[in-house]
Amino acid sequence: MNASLRRPLGLALVLASVAGALAACQIVAGLEMPSLVEPEATNEAGTPPGGVDACAPRVPLPRPSQPGPDIPVVTFAAEFFDLPTTAQGDRGRLCPSAALDIDGFATCEEVAQPDGTVVLAGGSCLSLTTSCDVQGGGDSNLGLVATANLGTEPSPENDPNLQLRRGQLGVLMEIANYNGLEDDGQVSLVLAQAVGVILPDGGFPSPTKGGPEPTFRPGEDTWVPEARSFPRGEDRPAALINDAYVTGDILVGRFATRTALSLGGAAGNLEADEIVITARIVRGADGLPERLDQGRIALRVPGRTLFDYAAGRLSEGISVCSDAGVADTLRSLIARDVCEALDLAEGAGAVTPGELCSAISFGAGFYAVRAKRSILALDAGLSPPTPPCPPGIPWPPRCADFLDGGR
Fold first, then answer.
1. Buried b (16+ CB within 10 A) or exposed e, 230-247
2. In a domain, 51, yes or no
3. Residue-range definition of the domain harbouring residue 352
4. Residue 42 to residues 55, 134, 259, 279, 368: CA-CA distances in angstroms?
């Protein structure tokens, strides 16, 4: 059941909306939203015998915790983000599809009825078009629109991995209160942005294009977090949940409050009502967590935020999908294109079968490596003092603190 949009949604518009770059808008004719989407690749890494499938659309449920003392806090830094506009990464460390089931509905899948008939399952809200899930219930409508409009050719200006490789952008995940085993029913998980990695001499990588990329040292690199990720001090992160868990070595966490997240490039400056993270924990020879593979980040992004980014926050708090929210031709174009792509209800866990969808799903794959986090944070765009500590700085201890090896 292929259903085309009433008016083609230009993916560049949506990506530019997310990134705040309206000038990149392009309307592409002939876009058709697929009916039921099936992943085209297989999981190269496979699933361990008796293990949990890290790439299944449905989020795995926790299993009973294994007894054991907690290990020290484990910090991971993202190495690669798998987006429609990024170059190929290590496919063996990625899932074939980044789509996760955010709303618990398998939209457009066939459902047998008691009388023997078969109907197509509905969604968690009413979409203006038929927005079907990835086979198994995975939600990633923005990703489907991206692929339909831009294909899979890499787009350097929208590839966050260029900054990651230069050590100028970071996304950190920290696991605490974890027993270090394959099953732990309750762990703490922090999601944080980083402004950059500290080089061996204590400085930051040069932002100059074409400059040498730093040599990363897995487990030893110290990343400096953004101050906005720790607004109330180093132990008071903005994005912290205490009900994450590990099941069959799969880390699962759900952030259910409005959270800002930047993956860089076209996926910068996202605000989500809900973020779901899953990833397989891979251990080193010493049995301790060494990296995260087959990671997925799923977001429930309110439609009004996409419109705000695209139109310079012209919506003034009015729903962009209502007539009152459209005051001129430009806003009408943006509003209609964005609204036709919405496939979720706004608000964490929201299910509104009888109401129009007001949010869009977005999924990105990733893998990450063990790292360290600097105790002190910086505002985005700033660099730590380069040793030896400059004379006369107002807080002399900070220079040494940045070079203290992190935590």
1. beeeeeebbbbbeebbbb
2. no
3. 3-39+62-382
4. 10, 14, 32, 17, 21
